[in-house]
Amino acid sequence: MKIIILAVRDTGGTAWNLAHAINKITPEHQAINIRGINSYLDYPAMVDVGYYNKSKIRQIIYKADVLVFLGSMKPFYQSLKLSKGKLRNKKKLLYETGSLWRWAKDALIKEADEILEDYTTMLGTSDLFLPNPKDEKPISDKIEFLPWTRSFSEINSKFGMCNQDRKALDSFDVKKRNVIFLHAPTNEEAKGSQTFFRTATRAMQMISTMTFNTVRQEPWVACLRALSQADVLLDQNPPFPTSYGAISVEGAIFHLPVINQISPKAQQWIKEKTGLDTPFITFKDEDDLVNKMVSLATQPELRIMFGDMNYKYCKALHDEKPVVERFFKILDGIS
User: Fold this and answer.
1) For the chain, which terminal residue's Cβ has fewer other Cβ atoms within 10 angstroms, N or C?
2) What distance in Å separates the CA atoms of residue 239 and residue 242, rounded to the nearest whole number?
3) What is the mean pLDDT of residues 190-217?
């Protein structure tokens, strides 16, 4: 089976990571991602439309058995002049993982109804399944859940330390002096970064060995490198109810505890849907967050406990094998 995942912007590297996972876990199938526009994050792309003429991109798309559109599909249909007739018998899926569904769901559904006609919708995060007070209609129970994926083994082997590395450091009695708290926002307002800036400053005034680092406007590989050196991840504190970011999954690869203000309703949805308990550290207010930062900075056993909990949760839900198995189960259900 030939599968193409198309994204105007590959938000969170979702398209590439899914295609890569399909090829690795099910080598009898072939998957590629096609990207329209790159960004500073510079996620990998198997096919970048800027390097090929439109005729070649059309030929590639027409060879597919399955088309997955990550967000809007209109730019591809209009710019490439894709034929609805040539795509009619292919399996088509709309896959959304964030803001486009959250803020423009009705417009996106209308677009898919007009262009794709017969398609299946998949959402990548739990909060997108929660009812929005502005919505008159509840989320359809026919919409599928497909979490984003990361390769735990590959990322850890490239950026992390193996057991032998750790033993070597121990043999030299090399102890890490500072405890590094990391925050890597793609959008400071949406991620509630100011809360973390204020509380980290207060906590560092109390704990001399605590360090606060940020990653801004850097490529994905730079963020992974920073995560591999960190001890605690500060994910997000958004001004609206939400779940958690892909960076929480990447932090889990390095066994990092994660502070993330996940919505209680999102936690409940995940528990009911997957049977898993979310491991994220939440807080009541800024004073509570400062106290929890201080505890994490001064108690290594606490960091280990929450880091291991995060690793087990994210590996069970977001590692390549469970996501690919879920993807093909969704495909099997499409007539």
Assistant:
1) C
2) 9
3) 97
